[in-house]
Write a structure and sequence with these properties.
The protein has 104 residues and is of the alpha+beta class. It contains 3 helices and 4 strands. It has a 4-stranded antiparallel β-sheet with strand order 2-3-1-4. The longest helix has 10 residues. The relative contact order is 0.27.
Length: 104
């Protein structure tokens, strides 16, 4: 398993709605993420800076790179686009974060 982390950018004042939508995560999206090899996925919020910090594990041979072409993923991005900074194709602006320390 590989663990990766990244950040995304929430629009100010949209945290409650972001949480509400994730609390009602579509079952088909959860299934797609799992089928793509993703597990132990958490998203945290830096409320002062409106930055979302995500960390997940993905198995060897994961299919995460194919997610942007999947219709369910595209629908989710459209559903979330009013809450966060996105690219013209609707995908969230994501910045990978390098691991600087780990203690097991």
């Amino acid at each position: 398993m590989e663990k990766i982390a990244f950040r995304m950018f929430l629009h100010p004042g949209r945290a409650a709605e972001y949480r509400r939508r994730h609390d009602a995560l579509w079952p088909e999206l959860a299934a797609l993420l799992r089928e793509s090899g993703i597990s132990d996925y958490s998203i945290y919020l830096d409320e002062q800076h409106h930055v979302l910090f995500a960390v997940l594990r993905r198995r060897a041979g994961h299919a995460m790179d194919a997610l942007p072409q999947h219709p369910v993923m595209r629908r989710w991005w459209a559903h979330m686009s009013d809450l966060m900074r996105t690219h013209p194709d609707g995908s969230p602006v994501v910045e990978p974060l390098p691991q600087m320390f780990h203690l097991d």
